[in-house]
TrEMBL record:
Annotated coiled-coil segments of the chain: none
Pfam families the record matches: adh_short
Signal peptide: none
Protein name (Swiss-Prot/TrEMBL): Oxidoreductase
Organism of this sequence: Paenibacillus albidus
InterPro entries assigned: NAD(P)-bd_dom_sf, SDR_fam
Amino acid sequence: MTELKGKIALVTGGSRGAGRGIALELAKAGAYVYVTGRHDNLNDVVKEMEQSGGAGAALRCDHTEDRETEETVRRILQEQGRLDILVNNVWGGNDLKIENKPFWELETDHWKNMFDAGVRAQLMTNHFAIPLMRKSPQGGLIVHTTFWDDDKYIGHFYYDLAKNALVRMAYGLSIELAGDGIAVIPLSPGWMRTELVLESMNTDEDHWQEVEDLRNSESTAYIGRAVRAMAADPEIMSRTGVPQQVGRLAETYGFTDIDGRRVPVFKVPE
């Protein structure tokens, strides 16, 4: 499938987890994908893209450093002259344990992890990348990976605040970029089998079915297929600014996870 052939994409935080899954799916669809991150395995992601017939480049970037983010966008400008798809996925919010405690008992460093290395990092990527995206007469797509379940409280004060800040960021940008034909989508996955999740449960991608708590989980390719479908949708502006859930997009666009399942939308426990 080459429905995105000729498109230029940037996926931040693309070395693992959702970012990796999204980068690989966009490359499979024909986009040239830049992946950024702080980890040494970025080149492995590019190799995997190439093995599946795609192409891209690894750019080491700490998105908490504005200078590095600006340089990343400058390089894309120099090499490509435009940017069609931006996936804001960088997230530093899991450096501290996510504990089920009331706000006043939580470490205040959660703010630094989730806002400085998460919300602000995505905001500054937008700041530098949007002028480049606006150069394209064909519009574009910005995706913020977040979590959203019909405005329900997620259960961890800082996590809830940060994820909803990303939803609101996307909404504001959707209004400001409507005239440019750039759709801005806050995208919520379900219970993802990221590398960290698998490691925490002492399993791997080949044996996750043996773990009861992962029975309704989804691969990182599932959210990748959601982004891929939206990027190829000529009517995507009808969704701009509106939170989207991967499970519902699977029903709309007709894609499945890598095991052939259509994983339902993840709901916050009542």
